[in-house]
Amino acid sequence: MADPYFFGYGSLVNLATHDFPNPRPARLKGWRRAWRHTDLRPVAFLTAIPDAESEIEGMIAHVPRNDWNALDEREWAYDRVSATQSITHPLTHEVEIAVYAVPNHRHSEPSEMHPLLLSYIDVVVQGYLRAFGPEGADRFFATTDGWDAPILNDRHEPRYQRHQKLTDLESNFVDTRLQSVSAKLIQST
Questions:
Q1: How far apart, in Å, are the Cα atoms of 44 and each of 77, 79, 172?
Q2: CA distance 162 to 182
């Protein structure tokens, strides 16, 4: 029986946000990331969308005892999709890997009513910086759609439940890259 793993491409790349065992860098072919909103959540978040021309980096990690409940609860607005054949990873034993994605018919573009959270972006980019270095974090920006969405600047009062403290270098990296994609920050009220 193959070991169950998941592929994380957003906050799950930041190992400070979970304790799933045996995390390893991996690549998912045929998908890219997009900022989207769904009526299931008040703010926008990342989802993976099919794109035959794209490949994204992320982390795989083991799902202990084949117990998907904790991960399904964390990713409750997503569907779990089998992606074993699309993932390149360093493991040498047989694994089955799933990716979480919101079905196309259940998501829409972010808006000022449903913005991205800067505290969430901070967590994701911190994870990419620590796992893949500045070049990998730049690839995260390049393989993610929706940077024209409004971003709520909640860094000083984070609304994202798994927010992390960034170093000054990490904060500056995020801010510089958001400027380079002409991101629109709106102030928290």
A1: 11, 16, 23
A2: 26
Q: Dump pLDDT digits (tens) for 131-154.
A: 999 999 999 999 999 999 999 999
Residue 185's closest CA among 127, 108, 121? 121
Average pLDDT, the chain: 92
Structure tokens at 51: 């794109």
Q: What is the mean pLDDT of residues 115-138?
A: 97
pLDDT at 40 exceeding the cut of 80: no
Nearest to 180 by CA among 152, 142, 124, 132: 142
Strand partners, 29: 55
**CB < 8 Å & 24+ apart, contacts of 72-79:** 74/18, 75/100, 76/40, 77/38, 77/40, 77/41, 77/45, 77/102, 78/47, 78/102, 79/103
For helices 118-142 and 168-180, angle between their N-to-C axes, nearest 10 degrees: 60
CA distance linking residue 27 with residue 19, whole number of Å: 20
163: nearest Cα among 176, 172, 154: 154
Q: Is residue 101 exposed (0-12), middle (13-18) or buried (19+ Cβ within 10 Å)? A: buried
* pLDDT tens, residue by residue, 48-102: 999 999 999 999 999 988 889 888 887 877 889 999 999 999 999 999 999 999 8
